[in-house]
């Protein structure tokens, strides 16, 4: 009896946390697997806790149902373990990832616009890029990102305005790659700009992105021919850090599956 009560209590606590987390971020228009999945898992745990007696009766009606239930629980446990391992891998792999070696160009990867302004995650990337640009005053910056849904200006344009206003970076140093909608295209469409600047792909090029995204961005860049990548990691805001990491878990898997890197 105590074991059953503990299971239900844990399911309520974890389920409520996950559901509220997902619902809150979705209300901010952050709709992706990293927010939808916690909401659904949380809802499932709440249903499990509330209807636990009925679920147990239904499961034990036939041996097949019992087997399927156990297999499903085992599969969910294995999947959850793989997510935790991926989170640990990201955390360890991105420690002290920011480097300040001399570079020929700084590519800043986009991360979403909210009401005409950079999202909190994107603002962190831009702050990090500006800090690097101030240390290396003659290096050009390439802002990447096309037109987001319901936005009037492209992501690259808004990124450019942000660093000009906040850090007084000269617009003559800023180049816009304003057609892309993915990391793959960000880096691919930046190559003609690099060529125009007489910068070769084997020269040191900084790629500024969020800490959780550096590994996949570097892998995609290498696949495209970039040979001297210096990844610069920007911190991810705590409010959506683990949701972003969960989204990256699926993005990393799909990127590998579709030979993106």
TrEMBL record:
Gene3D superfamilies assigned to the protein according to its UniProt record, in alphabetical order: HUPs
Transmembrane segments: 35-55, 67-90
InterPro entries tied to this protein: Cell_Envelope_Assoc, DUF218, Rossmann-like_a/b/a_fold
This protein's GO CC annotations: plasma membrane
Domain DUF218 span(s) in chain numbering: 105-250
Matching Pfam families: DUF218
Keyword terms: Membrane, Transmembrane, Transmembrane helix
UniProt cross-references to PANTHER family, sorted A to Z: DUF218 DOMAIN-CONTAINING PROTEIN (PTHR30336:SF20), INNER MEMBRANE PROTEIN, PROBABLE PERMEASE (PTHR30336)
Name of the protein: YdcF family protein
């Amino acid at each position: 009896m105590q074991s059953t009560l503990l299971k239900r209590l844990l399911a309520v606590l974890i389920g409520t946390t996950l559901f509220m987390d997902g619902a809150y971020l979705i209300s901010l228009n952050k709709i992706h697997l990293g927010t939808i999945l916690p909401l659904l898992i949380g809802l499932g745990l709440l249903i499990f806790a509330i209807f636990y007696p009925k679920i147990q009766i239904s499961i034990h009606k036939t041996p097949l149902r019992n087997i399927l239930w156990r297999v499903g629980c085992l599969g969910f446990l294995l999947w959850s373990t793989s997510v935790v391992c991926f989170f640990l891998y990201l955390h360890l792999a991105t420690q002290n990832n920011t480097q300040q070696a001399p570079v020929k160009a700084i590519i800043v990867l986009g991360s979403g616009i909210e009401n005409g302004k950079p999202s909190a995650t994107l603002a962190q990337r831009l702050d990090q890029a500006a800090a690097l640009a101030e240390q290396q005053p003659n290096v050009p910056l390439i802002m990447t990102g096309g037109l987001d849904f319901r936005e009037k200006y492209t992501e690259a344009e808004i990124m450019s305005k942000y660093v000009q206003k906040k850090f007084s970076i000269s617009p003559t140093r800023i180049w816009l790659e304003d057609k892309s909608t993915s990391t793959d295209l960000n880096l691919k469409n930046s190559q003609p700009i690099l060529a125009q600047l007489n910068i070769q792909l084997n020269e040191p090029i900084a790629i500024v992105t969020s800490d959780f995204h550096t590994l996949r961005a570097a892998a995609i860049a290498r696949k495209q021919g970039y040979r001297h990548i210096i990844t610069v990691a920007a911190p991810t805001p705590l409010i959506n850090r683990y949701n972003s990491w969960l989204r990256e878990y699926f993005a990393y898997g799909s990127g590998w599956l579709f030979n993106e890197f």
